[in-house]
Amino acid sequence: MSFGENLQFLRKKNNITQEQLAERLGVSRQSVSKWESDGSYPEMDKLMQLCEMFSCNMDALLRGNVEEHTMEDTAHYDAHMNDFSKWIAGAVGFLIFNAGLQCILDGLGVAEEISQLIFFIFTAISVIIFVVKGIQHDHFKKKNPSISQFYTEDVLENFAGKFPWMVAIPVGAIIIGVACEPLLEKIFLSKGLSGDFSSGIFLWVIAAAVTALVYGGMQKSKYSVETYNKENEYNKEQGKERKAVQRKIGKWCGVIMLIATILFLLSIGIEIGDFQEAMATGLGYQWKTSILAYSWIVFPIGGILCGIVAVIFNSSLEEKEDEGME
Protein backbone atom coordinates (compact mmCIF):
# COMPACT_ATOMS: atom_id res chain seq x y z
CA MET A 1 0.00 0.00 0.00
CA SER A 2 1.15 3.56 -0.72
CA PHE A 3 1.37 6.30 1.91
CA GLY A 4 -1.89 7.80 0.64
CA GLU A 5 -3.72 4.47 0.88
CA ASN A 6 -2.35 3.88 4.38
CA LEU A 7 -3.41 7.34 5.53
CA GLN A 8 -6.88 6.95 4.06
CA PHE A 9 -7.29 3.55 5.75
CA LEU A 10 -6.23 4.91 9.16
CA ARG A 11 -8.45 7.97 8.84
CA LYS A 12 -11.53 5.95 7.96
CA LYS A 13 -10.76 3.29 10.56
CA ASN A 14 -10.82 5.99 13.24
CA ASN A 15 -13.96 7.63 11.80
CA ILE A 16 -12.23 10.93 11.04
CA THR A 17 -13.12 13.14 8.09
CA GLN A 18 -10.54 14.92 5.97
CA GLU A 19 -11.66 18.23 7.51
CA GLN A 20 -11.22 16.90 11.06
CA LEU A 21 -7.78 15.47 10.29
CA ALA A 22 -6.72 18.73 8.66
CA GLU A 23 -7.88 20.69 11.70
CA ARG A 24 -5.95 18.46 14.11
CA LEU A 25 -2.77 18.79 12.05
CA GLY A 26 -3.17 22.50 11.38
CA VAL A 27 -3.26 22.14 7.58
CA SER A 28 -5.88 22.62 4.88
CA ARG A 29 -8.31 19.93 3.76
CA GLN A 30 -6.77 20.16 0.29
CA SER A 31 -3.42 19.14 1.74
CA VAL A 32 -4.92 16.02 3.30
CA SER A 33 -6.65 15.23 0.00
CA LYS A 34 -3.34 15.51 -1.88
CA TRP A 35 -1.63 13.25 0.67
CA GLU A 36 -4.27 10.56 0.26
CA SER A 37 -4.01 10.72 -3.52
CA ASP A 38 -0.20 10.54 -3.28
CA GLY A 39 0.01 13.95 -4.90
CA SER A 40 2.32 15.20 -2.14
CA TYR A 41 3.82 14.16 1.19
CA PRO A 42 3.57 15.85 4.59
CA GLU A 43 6.59 17.31 6.33
CA MET A 44 8.44 15.29 8.96
CA ASP A 45 6.70 16.94 11.94
CA LYS A 46 3.31 16.14 10.40
CA LEU A 47 4.38 12.54 9.78
CA MET A 48 5.35 12.22 13.44
CA GLN A 49 1.97 13.67 14.46
CA LEU A 50 0.21 11.12 12.25
CA CYS A 51 2.21 8.24 13.77
CA GLU A 52 1.36 9.46 17.28
CA MET A 53 -2.28 10.06 16.41
CA PHE A 54 -2.83 6.63 14.89
CA SER A 55 -0.28 4.73 17.08
CA CYS A 56 1.57 3.35 14.07
CA ASN A 57 5.14 2.86 12.94
CA MET A 58 6.53 5.41 10.45
CA ASP A 59 8.03 2.72 8.23
CA ALA A 60 4.69 0.97 8.02
CA LEU A 61 2.92 4.26 7.31
CA LEU A 62 5.27 5.28 4.49
CA ARG A 63 6.20 1.99 2.86
CA GLY A 64 4.26 -0.82 4.48
CA ASN A 65 0.71 -2.04 4.86
CA VAL A 66 -0.82 -0.53 8.01
CA GLU A 67 -3.96 -2.61 7.57
CA GLU A 68 -1.95 -5.78 8.16
CA HIS A 69 -0.05 -4.21 11.06
CA THR A 70 -3.19 -2.94 12.78
CA MET A 71 -4.91 -6.31 12.57
CA GLU A 72 -1.94 -8.47 13.57
CA ASP A 73 0.14 -8.43 16.74
CA THR A 74 3.46 -8.94 14.97
CA ALA A 75 5.52 -8.08 18.08
CA HIS A 76 3.52 -10.46 20.33
CA TYR A 77 2.77 -7.42 22.48
CA ASP A 78 -0.42 -8.86 23.95
CA ALA A 79 1.22 -12.11 25.10
CA HIS A 80 4.18 -10.24 26.60
CA MET A 81 1.99 -7.76 28.50
CA ASN A 82 -0.26 -10.56 29.79
CA ASP A 83 2.78 -12.44 31.08
CA PHE A 84 4.28 -9.27 32.59
CA SER A 85 0.99 -8.36 34.30
CA LYS A 86 0.54 -11.81 35.84
CA TRP A 87 4.07 -12.06 37.24
CA ILE A 88 4.26 -8.54 38.65
CA ALA A 89 0.77 -8.68 40.18
CA GLY A 90 1.56 -12.11 41.59
CA ALA A 91 4.85 -10.90 43.11
CA VAL A 92 3.11 -7.94 44.79
CA GLY A 93 0.42 -10.23 46.21
CA PHE A 94 3.05 -12.75 47.31
CA LEU A 95 4.77 -10.12 49.46
CA ILE A 96 1.52 -9.44 51.33
CA PHE A 97 0.80 -13.19 51.51
CA ASN A 98 4.23 -13.58 53.11
CA ALA A 99 3.30 -11.09 55.83
CA GLY A 100 0.09 -13.02 56.51
CA LEU A 101 2.06 -16.26 56.65
CA GLN A 102 4.24 -14.79 59.39
CA CYS A 103 1.12 -14.12 61.49
CA ILE A 104 -0.09 -17.70 60.95
CA LEU A 105 3.32 -19.12 61.91
CA ASP A 106 3.38 -16.96 65.04
CA GLY A 107 -0.07 -18.26 65.92
CA LEU A 108 1.15 -21.83 65.48
CA GLY A 109 4.09 -21.13 67.79
CA VAL A 110 6.75 -21.73 65.14
CA ALA A 111 10.24 -20.72 66.26
CA GLU A 112 11.14 -17.15 65.40
CA GLU A 113 14.33 -18.24 63.63
CA ILE A 114 12.34 -20.47 61.24
CA SER A 115 9.62 -17.90 60.55
CA GLN A 116 12.23 -15.21 59.80
CA LEU A 117 14.07 -17.58 57.46
CA ILE A 118 10.84 -18.27 55.59
CA PHE A 119 10.10 -14.54 55.45
CA PHE A 120 13.48 -13.73 53.86
CA ILE A 121 13.26 -16.64 51.39
CA PHE A 122 9.78 -15.62 50.20
CA THR A 123 10.80 -11.95 50.02
CA ALA A 124 13.84 -12.94 47.95
CA ILE A 125 11.57 -14.86 45.56
CA SER A 126 9.41 -11.75 45.05
CA VAL A 127 12.46 -9.54 44.48
CA ILE A 128 13.86 -12.00 41.93
CA ILE A 129 10.55 -11.91 40.03
CA PHE A 130 10.54 -8.09 40.02
CA VAL A 131 14.12 -7.95 38.74
CA VAL A 132 13.80 -10.65 36.07
CA LYS A 133 10.47 -9.46 34.69
CA GLY A 134 11.56 -5.83 34.86
CA ILE A 135 14.65 -6.58 32.76
CA GLN A 136 12.61 -8.63 30.29
CA HIS A 137 10.04 -5.83 29.94
CA ASP A 138 12.77 -3.24 29.44
CA HIS A 139 14.31 -5.43 26.71
CA PHE A 140 10.91 -5.77 25.01
CA LYS A 141 10.41 -1.99 25.01
CA LYS A 142 13.84 -1.40 23.49
CA LYS A 143 13.19 -4.04 20.84
CA ASN A 144 9.66 -2.74 20.13
CA PRO A 145 9.63 1.02 20.81
CA SER A 146 6.47 1.49 18.74
CA ILE A 147 3.43 -0.78 18.49
CA SER A 148 0.72 -0.35 15.89
CA GLN A 149 -2.81 -0.40 17.27
CA PHE A 150 -4.10 -3.91 16.55
CA TYR A 151 -6.88 -4.12 19.14
CA THR A 152 -10.29 -3.87 17.52
CA GLU A 153 -13.05 -1.64 18.85
CA ASP A 154 -14.95 -4.75 19.99
CA VAL A 155 -11.99 -5.94 22.08
CA LEU A 156 -11.54 -2.51 23.66
CA GLU A 157 -15.24 -2.19 24.42
CA ASN A 158 -15.32 -5.68 25.91
CA PHE A 159 -12.49 -4.85 28.32
CA ALA A 160 -14.05 -1.47 29.15
CA GLY A 161 -17.13 -3.38 30.34
CA LYS A 162 -15.06 -5.78 32.48
CA PHE A 163 -12.70 -3.26 34.05
CA PRO A 164 -15.16 -1.73 36.58
CA TRP A 165 -15.78 -5.22 37.97
CA MET A 166 -12.04 -5.87 38.13
CA VAL A 167 -11.81 -2.87 40.47
CA ALA A 168 -15.07 -3.16 42.38
CA ILE A 169 -14.78 -6.83 43.41
CA PRO A 170 -11.30 -6.56 45.03
CA VAL A 171 -12.28 -3.32 46.78
CA GLY A 172 -15.40 -5.05 48.08
CA ALA A 173 -13.27 -7.97 49.31
CA ILE A 174 -11.01 -5.56 51.22
CA ILE A 175 -14.03 -3.88 52.87
CA ILE A 176 -15.47 -7.27 53.87
CA GLY A 177 -12.07 -8.35 55.21
CA VAL A 178 -11.78 -5.22 57.35
CA ALA A 179 -15.29 -5.76 58.73
CA CYS A 180 -14.80 -9.47 59.47
CA GLU A 181 -11.29 -9.37 60.97
CA PRO A 182 -12.39 -8.36 64.52
CA LEU A 183 -15.09 -11.06 64.47
CA LEU A 184 -12.59 -13.72 63.37
CA GLU A 185 -10.23 -12.65 66.13
CA LYS A 186 -12.95 -13.12 68.76
CA ILE A 187 -13.80 -16.56 67.36
CA PHE A 188 -10.18 -17.71 67.47
CA LEU A 189 -9.65 -16.30 70.97
CA SER A 190 -12.83 -18.00 72.20
CA LYS A 191 -11.43 -21.32 71.03
CA GLY A 192 -8.17 -20.72 72.86
CA LEU A 193 -6.22 -19.91 69.71
CA SER A 194 -4.02 -16.92 68.96
CA GLY A 195 -5.48 -13.77 67.46
CA ASP A 196 -2.61 -13.87 64.97
CA PHE A 197 -4.67 -16.31 62.90
CA SER A 198 -7.28 -13.66 62.13
CA SER A 199 -4.56 -11.17 61.17
CA GLY A 200 -2.99 -13.73 58.86
CA ILE A 201 -6.27 -14.57 57.15
CA PHE A 202 -7.06 -10.86 56.78
CA LEU A 203 -3.68 -10.24 55.11
CA TRP A 204 -4.29 -13.17 52.76
CA VAL A 205 -7.58 -11.61 51.70
CA ILE A 206 -5.76 -8.30 51.16
CA ALA A 207 -3.08 -10.13 49.17
CA ALA A 208 -5.66 -11.64 46.81
CA ALA A 209 -7.48 -8.31 46.42
CA VAL A 210 -4.29 -6.31 45.76
CA THR A 211 -3.12 -8.91 43.25
CA ALA A 212 -6.40 -8.53 41.37
CA LEU A 213 -6.22 -4.72 41.49
CA VAL A 214 -2.64 -4.58 40.23
CA TYR A 215 -3.42 -7.06 37.46
CA GLY A 216 -6.51 -5.09 36.42
CA GLY A 217 -4.58 -1.83 36.34
CA MET A 218 -1.78 -3.32 34.28
CA GLN A 219 -4.28 -4.84 31.86
CA LYS A 220 -5.90 -1.44 31.41
CA SER A 221 -2.48 0.00 30.66
CA LYS A 222 -1.88 -2.79 28.16
CA TYR A 223 -4.78 -1.74 25.98
CA SER A 224 -3.51 1.85 25.85
CA VAL A 225 -1.06 1.28 22.99
CA GLU A 226 -0.85 5.01 22.34
CA THR A 227 0.40 5.61 25.90
CA TYR A 228 2.97 2.83 25.48
CA ASN A 229 4.30 4.49 22.31
CA LYS A 230 4.38 7.95 23.90
CA GLU A 231 6.26 6.70 26.97
CA ASN A 232 8.86 4.96 24.81
CA GLU A 233 9.33 8.05 22.65
CA TYR A 234 9.64 10.19 25.79
CA ASN A 235 12.10 7.77 27.36
CA LYS A 236 14.17 7.85 24.18
CA GLU A 237 14.40 11.64 24.26
CA GLN A 238 15.05 11.87 27.98
CA GLY A 239 17.11 8.67 28.17
CA LYS A 240 20.56 10.18 28.66
CA GLU A 241 19.53 12.48 31.50
CA ARG A 242 17.50 9.79 33.18
CA LYS A 243 20.38 7.31 32.94
CA ALA A 244 22.64 9.84 34.67
CA VAL A 245 20.07 10.25 37.47
CA GLN A 246 19.68 6.48 37.79
CA ARG A 247 23.45 6.12 38.13
CA LYS A 248 23.42 8.66 40.96
CA ILE A 249 20.57 6.81 42.66
CA GLY A 250 22.44 3.54 42.22
CA LYS A 251 25.60 4.95 43.82
CA TRP A 252 23.71 6.38 46.81
CA CYS A 253 21.73 3.17 47.30
CA GLY A 254 24.92 1.14 47.02
CA VAL A 255 26.49 3.17 49.82
CA ILE A 256 23.36 2.89 51.98
CA MET A 257 23.06 -0.88 51.58
CA LEU A 258 26.82 -1.30 52.11
CA ILE A 259 26.50 0.51 55.45
CA ALA A 260 23.50 -1.66 56.32
CA THR A 261 25.48 -4.80 55.49
CA ILE A 262 28.43 -3.64 57.62
CA LEU A 263 26.11 -2.99 60.57
CA PHE A 264 24.53 -6.41 60.12
CA LEU A 265 27.95 -8.12 60.00
CA LEU A 266 29.01 -6.20 63.11
CA SER A 267 25.92 -7.51 64.90
CA ILE A 268 26.90 -11.04 63.88
CA GLY A 269 30.38 -10.44 65.30
CA ILE A 270 28.93 -9.15 68.56
CA GLU A 271 26.56 -12.13 68.67
CA ILE A 272 29.40 -14.60 68.18
CA GLY A 273 31.33 -12.90 70.99
CA ASP A 274 28.31 -13.10 73.32
CA PHE A 275 27.79 -16.75 72.42
CA GLN A 276 31.42 -17.64 73.14
CA GLU A 277 31.30 -15.77 76.42
CA ALA A 278 28.07 -17.50 77.42
CA MET A 279 29.53 -20.91 76.62
CA ALA A 280 32.74 -20.14 78.49
CA THR A 281 30.97 -18.96 81.64
CA GLY A 282 28.26 -21.63 81.54
CA LEU A 283 25.49 -19.02 81.38
CA GLY A 284 22.36 -19.56 79.34
CA TYR A 285 22.27 -18.26 75.77
CA GLN A 286 18.99 -16.67 74.60
CA TRP A 287 19.01 -15.93 70.83
CA LYS A 288 15.63 -14.25 70.86
CA THR A 289 16.81 -11.53 73.21
CA SER A 290 20.12 -10.98 71.43
CA ILE A 291 21.04 -8.10 69.14
CA LEU A 292 20.95 -10.43 66.11
CA ALA A 293 17.23 -10.95 66.62
CA TYR A 294 16.64 -7.31 65.68
CA SER A 295 19.61 -6.47 63.45
CA TRP A 296 17.76 -7.57 60.27
CA ILE A 297 15.82 -4.29 60.48
CA VAL A 298 18.81 -2.43 58.98
CA PHE A 299 17.88 -3.84 55.55
CA PRO A 300 14.27 -2.58 55.38
CA ILE A 301 15.50 0.76 56.77
CA GLY A 302 18.13 0.82 54.04
CA GLY A 303 15.44 0.07 51.46
CA ILE A 304 13.31 2.96 52.75
CA LEU A 305 16.30 5.32 52.58
CA CYS A 306 16.97 4.16 49.00
CA GLY A 307 13.34 4.93 48.17
CA ILE A 308 13.70 8.42 49.65
CA VAL A 309 16.87 9.02 47.61
CA ALA A 310 15.09 7.89 44.43
CA VAL A 311 12.13 10.19 45.11
CA ILE A 312 14.41 13.20 45.71
CA PHE A 313 16.47 12.70 42.55
CA ASN A 314 13.48 11.82 40.36
CA SER A 315 11.50 14.81 41.65
CA SER A 316 14.41 17.09 40.77
CA LEU A 317 14.56 15.58 37.27
CA GLU A 318 10.80 15.95 36.76
CA GLU A 319 10.99 19.64 37.75
CA LYS A 320 13.72 20.18 35.14
CA GLU A 321 11.68 18.36 32.50
CA ASP A 322 8.57 20.38 33.31
CA GLU A 323 10.57 23.60 32.99
CA GLY A 324 11.93 22.39 29.65
CA MET A 325 8.41 21.63 28.38
CA GLU A 326 7.25 25.12 29.35
Give a description of the structure.
The structure is a single chain. The chain is built from 13 helices and no strands. It is mainly alpha-helical. The longest helix has 57 residues, at 225-281. The model is unreliable at 285-289 (pLDDT under 50).
SSE blueprint and pairings:
Layout (H helix, E strand, L loop, with lengths): L2 H11 L4 H8 L3 H8 L7 H11 L3 H6 L2 H6 L5 H32 L3 H32 L9 H38 L5 H28 L1 H57 L10 H4 L2 H28 L1
Based on CA inertia axes, which overall geometry fits?
elongated
**What is the average per-residue confidence, as pLDDT, rounded to a whole number?**
80
**Largest sheet: number of strands, sense, barrel closure:** none
What proportion of the residues is helical, as a percent range?
Answer: over 70%
Q: Give the SSE order as H and E letters.
A: HHHHHHHHHHHHH
Separate helix tally: 13
Strand composition percent: under 5%
How many strands appear in the DSSP assignment?
Answer: 0
Radius of gyration: 28 Å
Distance linking N and C termini:
39 Å
| Uncertain residue segments | 285-289
Going by helix content, strand content and strand pairing, the class is mainly alpha
